[in-house]
Amino acid sequence: MTQPGSPAPTEDLLLAEAKAAARRAAFDRRKLAHAAAGPGRAGVLSSVLAGYRGVPLAGYIPIRTEIPPLPAMEESAAHGPVGVPIIEAAGKPLRFALWEPDCAMQTGPFGASIPATLDWMEPEILIVPLVAFDRAGNRLGYGGGFYDRTLEALRARRPVLAIGYAYAAQEAADLPLEPTDQRLDLIVTEAEVISV
């Protein structure tokens, strides 16, 4: 709320506040969904990826309460290259290093596990983590813009399939958006595949 005599909030500030509130609510929903989930969540994601065997794929090593894509990544690694994201610096797109099941890992930026040896690859399919999504293919991430910059750069070079992977409980009816947000092509939850 604006105090008397203080300047009115800018549109950017209002958007930032709306995104922060949406993130807090989505983190709460995700935490509950993660606690309630059992093993075997990768079935729906695995069935989607089965149609793309051998296509260079990037997944992610889950942190906090993210839905884990590792079983589907392991299946895909038997057929073609699989990478994981590497944050090189704030404001830059992600790069992707080759990953294999049981490869040596080390702690990277933001505490994420990354391969001990960084052999670079460029994915054509990205499994994208997220905080919240809507049925139009919009996503709310952590706020660093890494996936937005990465998808924009990759899509400038070739078609890229961006698959949001989340618990169904992370769906939101209305997300605060800005022009730089990149849309997803599919959203996969433990319950369904949403084509956008």
From TrEMBL:
The keyword ATP-binding applies. Its cofactor is Mg(2+). The keyword Nucleotide-binding applies. Keywords: ATP-binding, Magnesium, Metal-binding, Nucleotide-binding. Transmembrane segments: none annotated. GO terms for biological process: folic acid-containing compound biosynthetic process; tetrahydrofolate interconversion. Its EC number is 6.3.3.2. It comes from the Bacteria. Signal peptide: none annotated. Pfam families: 5-FTHF_cyc-lig. It catalyses: (6S)-5-formyl-5,6,7,8-tetrahydrofolate + ATP = (6R)-5,10-methenyltetrahydrofolate + ADP + phosphate. One of its GO terms (molecular function) is 5-formyltetrahydrofolate cyclo-ligase activity. PANTHER family: 5-FORMYLTETRAHYDROFOLATE CYCLO-LIGASE, ATPASE INHIBITOR/5-FORMYLTETRAHYDROFOLATE CYCLO-LIGASE. NCBIfam families: MTHFS_bact. Belongs to the 5-formyltetrahydrofolate cyclo-ligase family. This is 5-formyltetrahydrofolate cyclo-ligase.
